[in-house]
Write a structure and sequence with these properties.
It contains 13 helices and 15 strands. It is α/β, with parallel strands linked by helices. The chain is globular, with a radius of gyration of 21 Å.
């Protein structure tokens, strides 16, 4: 990894995504095994001689292995999905990692101290085996023949990948949204291999409203005639229309009503008065959503959206590991836990983090819960980097406040 002399202090510089082929099949919750499996990954920092300074960073639904620094080959569309990311990042946005503000020297995940590993999840479309990969049985892309996967399957794949790197124990697993689900699953599946977890804007199970929104997004894709039952690769047609609608729906769930009001209000896009049109956008917010859709379909596979969305709706710690009891499901956790929630997040509401914190305290496990007052909705975990950083840095050093008391942060 060669440093880029033109980047700002705190950057990990230029990075190249690498790939590793797992030597053995990955067992899946659906009863199948998957082989071969390739994992796309990036690393930042230096691995200690004892191999005890590793932090695994897990991405949300639309992320990938490129979490920090500048991609050696910038993609056509970047993965910095936070609200108004283009205005924030400028021309560098396409090359920047999706959590660049959190990973690097002196940042929340400090590469002067830790060796950070980021992988693209199983089922992904950015280098890790997924529905767009070649099915060895047919020689064609899997499409909808790809096995249905779960968050636990993603974590087992990460465990197998780390085994190949010779890493047996993790100083921490961290992530937001779906990434937070993976961190929780790690602590449950491998309790003696994880020292700490950082769970941001996440939940022990997606609430019914979240399940419903994801169902609408998946239906939009599958009702597009160009989806072709999931076997659209090589046909010259892709379900871009359905995928665009899915992205619009998903993006709105990541925001809050005050954020939309502040950014757009009811401002018209092209004229001083309405134009009496059905097909063209009239309002700024409509144009914004169309832009989000157009950019997303350039970089993301529709089947991966279906499979990853289904995996996060299946995730339910209480059902999977506790016979319906969250406290029982968390009973084996040994990791210190940091929970961060955001006041305006209605998709992964603070009550979900409070539920986790209460269960862990009942078990006598070390847990910190911080509620950050922020107006941006679920996207806050990508936007409020400066306010998360001191909380995470203190937690990872083992310093900090009384872990038994919820904290609201207004700074």
């Amino acid at each position: 990894m060669a440093p880029n002399p033109t980047v700002a202090a705190g950057s990990v510089g230029n990075v190249e995504t690498r790939h590793l082929d797992l030597p053995r099949p990955v067992p899946l919750d659906c009863g199948r095994e998957l082989h071969p499996v390739r994992v796309a990954y990036e690393t930042y920092g230096v691995l200690s001689p004892e191999r005890d300074n590793v932090i695994l960073v897990c991405h949300a639904l639309s992320g990938d292995a490129h979490a920090a620094g500048f991609a050696a080959t910038p993609p056509e569309a970047g993965t910095r999905d936070g609200f108004a990311a283009e205005a924030r990042d400028g021309a560098a946005g396409k090359a920047l990692g999706w959590w660049d503000g959190m990973i690097g020297p002196g940042k929340a995940f400090d590469t002067d101290r830790f060796f950070i590993v980021s992988t693209n999840v199983l089922g992904g479309c950015r280098g890790t085996t997924g529905p767009s990969s070649t099915d060895p049985a047919s020689g064609a892309p899997y499409g909808s023949d790809f096995p249905v996967i779960t968050v636990a399957d993603m974590v087992r794949t990460q465990r197998a990948f780390l085994d190949e790197l010779g890493i047996t124990r993790l100083a921490a697993v961290a992530g937001g949204s779906l990434g937070g689900m993976q961190a929780l699953e790690w602590a449950v599946l491998y309790p003696d291999q994880v020292d700490a977890i950082v769970v941001i804007a996440s939940t022990p199970a997606l609430h019914p409203q979240g399940v419903a929104w994801n169902a609408i997004a998946r239906d939009a894709i599958m009702r597009d005639p160009d989806w072709q039952g999931g076997h659209y690769h090589g046909t010259g047609r892709q379900p871009d229309a359905g995928m665009g609608v899915a992205r619009m729906v998903g993006h709105i769930t990541y925001l809050s009503a005050p954020a939309l009001e502040d950014r757009f209000g009811r401002r018209l896009q092209f004229a001083d008065d309405i134009r009496h049109t059905i097909t063209e956008p009239e309002f700024e917010v409509e144009s914004y959503l169309r832009h989000q859709a157009d950019a997303f379909v350039k970089r993301f596979d529709a089947n991966t959206y279906l499979y990853t969305s289904r995996a996060l709706t299946y995730f339910d710690l209480a059902r999977e590991h506790g016979g319906g009891s969250l406290t029982r499901a968390l009973g084996g956790i040994m990791a210190r836990t940091l929970l961060i929630a955001f006041s305006s997040d209605w998709l992964y509401p603070p009550t979900a983090s409070e539920q986790l914190a209460a269960a862990l305290r009942t078990l006598g496990r070390p847990v910190e819960y911080h509620l950050i007052e922020a107006p941006h909705g679920h996207d806050s975990f990508l936007l409020e980097e400066a306010r998360q950083t001191p909380v995470i840095r203190r937690f990872l050093t083992g310093a900090g406040a009384d872990p038994s008391t919820p904290r609201k942060r207004h700074e």
